[in-house]
Recover the amino acids of this structure.
């Protein structure tokens, strides 16, 4: 047997106190009786008191109180099935998987750092339950890696597979990726949808700010999470065919990539969202979720059947009522001379 509210166990201390009060009351009644009437005369004039019945009545009352205390502690044993409604929002994670995300201005690199942020977010979502997650990776085009799902294991598996080597079209077109994502999730309910864009802001003329305005017109809030160093930036490491490390070059010069804070902040502003520079800890995205998304309205998705501990407090309430009935039915006095 387990108890859901075991903190009420201290109320059992009332039981010996209640018994002591009954004993004291019985003694006081006997003492008061002998003070006015002598015992032989009292036996002839007054109804007889049955001490056994008197104590039985007292024990019934004490037992009823004990049963009520046990019921208050919510005893549980066995299991029962119940349908639990799941309420949540739709969180679409858009992860930049372009070559610039291999820059190492955050350790170990921007992409792996972003994945760690998302994993922390999933831990928060899993603890609450109910939210559906989707994963879209993008570079030159967007690719749906995981549809909206409550299977967080599948989502994390697809997250771990995100890599620039899997991208067919190189470059970074944030605006195109946003538009493709909107088309893929055309039936999403704007009031219950959150779009989280994780990128360094490196864009090749796809008009992302204008697309962010389109999101605002659709009523979908955009949360922009910037990855990388906005000041000094970093080179983009690559591996050549011989397994040797080199750096991305353009027109004979090594490419330096910096996080574009101005673009990302402007996108969030246009989409009535929030911009976060996620370089202050792996829980940055989880903290954004708690402060901005966690308390937003949720819709009911479906009902989930699950096994829960069976509540048994009703039995003890019934036992308490039976004991109270016995206490009222028992008569401690009999007619004198009977």
């Amino acid at each position: 047997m387990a108890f859901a509210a075991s903190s009420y166990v201290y109320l059992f201390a009332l039981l010996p106190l209640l018994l002591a009060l009954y004993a004291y009351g019985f003694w006081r009644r006997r003492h008061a009786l002998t003070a006015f009437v002598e015992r032989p005369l009292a036996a002839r004039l007054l109804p007889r008191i049955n001490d056994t019945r008197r104590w039985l009545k007292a024990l019934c009352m004490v037992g009823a109180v004990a049963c009520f205390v046990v019921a208050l502690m919510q005893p549980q044993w066995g299991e029962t099935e119940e349908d639990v409604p799941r309420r949540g929002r739709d969180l679409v994670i858009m992860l930049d998987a372009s070559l610039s995300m291999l820059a190492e201005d955050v350790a170990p690199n921007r992409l792996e750092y972003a994945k760690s942020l998302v994993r922390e977010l999933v831990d928060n979502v899993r603890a609450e339950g109910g939210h559906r997650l989707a994963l879209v990776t993008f570079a030159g085009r967007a690719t749906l890696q995981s549809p909206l799902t409550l299977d967080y294991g599948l989502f994390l598996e697809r997250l771990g597979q995100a890599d620039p080597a899997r991208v067919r079209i190189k470059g970074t077109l944030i605006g195109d990726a946003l538009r493709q994502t909107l088309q893929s999730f055309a039936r999403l309910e704007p009031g219950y949808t959150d779009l989280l864009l994780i990128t360094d802001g490196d864009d090749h003329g796809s008009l992302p700010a204008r697309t962010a305005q389109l999101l605002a017109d659709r009523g979908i809030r955009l949360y922009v999470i910037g990855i990388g160093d906005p000041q000094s930036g970093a080179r983009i490491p690559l591996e050549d065919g011989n397994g040797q490390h080199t750096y991305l070059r353009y027109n004979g010069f090594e490419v330096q990539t910096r996080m574009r804070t101005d673009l990302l902040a402007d996108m969030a502003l246009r989409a009535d969202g929030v911009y976060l520079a996620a370089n202050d800890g792996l829980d940055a995205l989880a903290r954004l979720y708690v402060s901005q998304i966690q308390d937003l309205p949720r819709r009911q998705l479906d009902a989930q059947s699950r096994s829960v501990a069976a509540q048994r407090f009703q039995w003890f309430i019934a036992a308490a009522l039976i004991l109270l009935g016995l206490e009222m039915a028992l008569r401690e006095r009999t007619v004198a001379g009977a």
Summary: The chain has a mean pLDDT of 86. Residues 23 and 313 are 30 Å apart (CA to CA).
